[in-house]
Every structure is written in structure tokens, then in C-alpha cells.
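Q: Convert this sequence to C-alpha cells.
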Amino acid sequence: MINDNEPSPTIRMGADPAQEAVDWLVRLTSGEASDQDRAAFAAWHAKPAHAAHYAEIERIWDMAGPALEAPPKVVPLPIVRPRRFAWANRRNLAVAASLALAVSLGFQYEHNWRHDQVAPGSAQKVAELADGSRLVLNPGAAIDVAYKDGVRHVTLARGEVFFDVKHDPAHPFIIDAGAGNVRVLGTAFSVRRDGDDGVVMVERGKVRVQAGDAMVDLVRGQSVTYRPGAEGKVTSVDPDVDLAWSRGRLIFENKPLGEVIEKLDAYYPGRLILVDRQAAQRRVNAVIDLARVDAWLDALHRSQNVAVHRVPGVVTILD
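A:
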């Protein structure tokens, strides 16, 4: 759970202006800097020596930038490459390493550690809440949980989660996910959040979805998409197929191979790349065990006559 009262990182003042510059950059780029922080920084930065140190740290930040980027399913460890700096300037290397570590820890906090449950990388995570409700987090999903005033409350920070909620009429179960919230008593359903937009899909029972003034009740086989201030039209889905991921499977019926590979890539501990456009349009039926993706790729090679090439971290598929 998020602690709104947690103090901001300390600025280590006085001992080392270069370290102060690192601390200020981390604070100002965290998204949590207050007006008081910015005023204090302006006063600190007014000294020419401080401004020079900060300019150097910003230069190192810019040079390290490409090393800090990673695909969403990869938990990055920032690396600053020494070849970018003169070996004689070891102070810069030390400061760069300090900055890279600070950014790495900041990323981990914002993306993972600040949340109660996270499914990092390419793996799903199964979690059981204190009330006995069972959750399956798709790769990249993150939630926070709070029990207060008789209400079971989950905040979906990002991604997709399947909820199998323990029936308890005396304690409502509410999920906040961007612009919408979902209220249930006992049921099984999924919620996916993309920014402030979301999608709810019901496997069992009944849920109520509210976005702004719009409200709709969903039952098994129904889904709705919402965005800030509005809900879309209720549509019919097949939860046995569309929610198979919550049981460790992906099921595709007459889908383009390109769509299959794109969705499967999120669950693979490397990259799956389909490099042939013609093969991408080929329609396939597939039931994929997420614990045996490599076995399915071998079967794809035999059944579809495509080449599957493996190198560490990457699988390419082509005709």
C-alpha cells in the first residue's frame, strides 16, 4: 500500500556538491518535488559552483538515458558505459554510477516496490488476499490493497488482473482502475487498465461498473470498455476463451499468426519476433500452455512450416 506520509529522499547537503547535484536531480525528476523543493533548489543552484556541478550531472543523465530504457516487460538495471568518459576523470564515473543506481532504485520504487502485489517481467503472479479472494496478475500488473470501514478495496495501478472474489455480502469488494470502478460481492471477472481507460469482463456472477455518471451491470459473458467520463457499449465475449490466460492458457480461434505472436510475447522471458508479413496474416487455431511456450513454438515449426531461430533472449519466426 502507498504511504502518502512517507518523507521525500534526503538531500545530503554540505559534504559534497557533486552528490548534492545527484540528489537534486533525483528529487526533481521523481514527480514528487514540491514548490518548497523547487525554491530550495533555486537557492542552491544560484551558486556558480553548484550550477556547474548540476550541469555536469544533467550531461551525464542525458548520456545515460538510452541505457535506462527497457521494454515494459523487462525490469531494467541501468548501466552507464565507461567508454563514454575519459578514464582519467574517475570522479565523473563515480558520480555516474551513483546516479544510475539512484535512477534504478527510483524506477523500482515507482514501478514495483511501492505496490502491494506486482507481476514483473514476463511471469504471471497468483495472489490470495486476506479474505480468501484469489487474484491472477498478468505480466506487468500492479495492485494495492486496503481493508477499511468494512470495505475490501483494491486499486489497479496498471495492467490486467483476474479476480475470483470470496462471497461476503457484509464487506463490499471495490476495485478502482483509472476512470472506472467495479463493485462486486462474489464473482469472477477481469479488469484491465490502460492509463485511465479500462475493460471489464465477467466469467461468473455479476459486477457493477461505473465511469463518471455512467453505470452498467455485467453478468457472465459480458464486457464493457470505459474511459474518463464515459462507458462504451456492452459486448458479448466468451470467457472460457478470452479469460483462459487466468488458467495458464492462451486460446486463439482463427486468429492471424501475427496477433498470436504479439500476445504471446508478453509471457515469454525474451523477445518473440515474427519477421515475415505474409506469415503474420496466416490464420491459425492454437491452445498454448504458458508453461510450455517453447514446445508450442516447435509445434508451430512443424505444423506451419515456419523457421524458428533461437539466440539468447530472442526467438525469430519466419517463412
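Helices lie at 17-28, 35-45, 48-68, 90-113, 239-242, 257-265, 277-280, 293-304.
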